[in-house]
Amino acid sequence: FFETFFCMACSLKVYVTSGSLGEPGERVATNLARQFPSVEVKVQVFSHLLDEDGLPSVVQEVASEKGMIVNTLVKSSMRYRLNQLAEEHNVPYVDMIDTFMKTMEKELGKPPVEIPGLYRDTANERYQLSKAMKYAVDHDEGARPEEWRLADALILGLPSTGKTMLCAFLGTMGYKVANYTVRPGTPLPDTFEDIPRHRVFGLIMTPEALTQHRTRCLRSTIDADVLKRQGSLLDPHGLNEFNPVSPISGVEPTEYTAPPAIQQEVAFCLDLYQKLEITKLDITKESATSIASEIVHLLGKFLKSASSSFELADVPTVEVDEEGKSDDSGEEPLGLSFSRSSFRRYNPVKNDFNSSFKESMAPPRGNTLYL
């Protein structure tokens, strides 16, 4: 329906109806409109529609503009009336709420309260997001390891495996994530022992993919003038006609892109992850969004298992208020999304799971997840 309607004209006006501000509906409509880049789509919100009296004028305006209605009204009587009016005026109508609400009512066996505007405080949510993103910046490449205990997750990986980008993306989702570059001969900081293993993820790539990726990185970051100033050293591994200095501190130029050296690095990583008993994520062919989704899924799965498997007396409880703050530490619980969940038994600041609990929830040895 959407595709057929959009192709009938070079522009379209989409009107979002809401009993509150209408921001969620506007955001969804705008994002979906981007799926039709050749069409000019304008999104307008009719906000604070609290009774049926204002609906006829809304539908009349939409009809006169030959637009379509995207409904987000939570009151069932208003949704029904709006649908009627849209049919009478032959206005395209999409209800984003009705099917979802009815299904939830059926599954829960309880009717919805139908009160508009019951969503998380936007200002507080943005504040939490900004804190998560700042945490990713402040704890990039192993910085401030003494604060890893406050992280929702810790990412390990070889140089040039996308750790920074992944942490930044998870930060936009409200998760505080640190990363650390592992290298042969360099031990992990002592503070690593304070991090529960279920919150540590090791990135891995095939040697061939990592070689190609590092070569592309060098080609895109070092210009011809820099290469000339460094001298015309012939590159035995095919990087143009020069062999630039590696951007990785302490690594010789030939080691950074040399296949034998990279094979040794990957083998070292696999052995390290095996010894640490952490979850390995094969990122050879996956995007940052896919990897981030899998990490969030695994963290959430752990919390769900923890909540269902242990009595309240087994694990110390942290009281959390509506803004997601802990009474005993002042720090937020695991991630912005986790702060919305009902799993409150794990203290993310003090890591108060006992050793048997950690062992029971640790991933299997050598477990690799191909995303």
TrEMBL record:
Keyword Translocase in annotation: no
Keyword Translocase: no
Signal peptide limits: none
Alphabetized InterPro entries for the sequence: Kinase-pyrophosphorylase
Coiled coil: none
UniProt keyword terms in alphabetical order: Kinase, Nucleotide-binding, Serine/threonine-protein kinase, Transferase
Organism classification: Eukaryota, Discoba, Euglenozoa, Euglenida, Spirocuta
Domain of life: Eukaryota
Protein name: Uncharacterized protein
Region listing for Disordered, in residue ranges: 352-371
GO terms assigned for molecular function: ATP binding; protein serine/threonine kinase activity
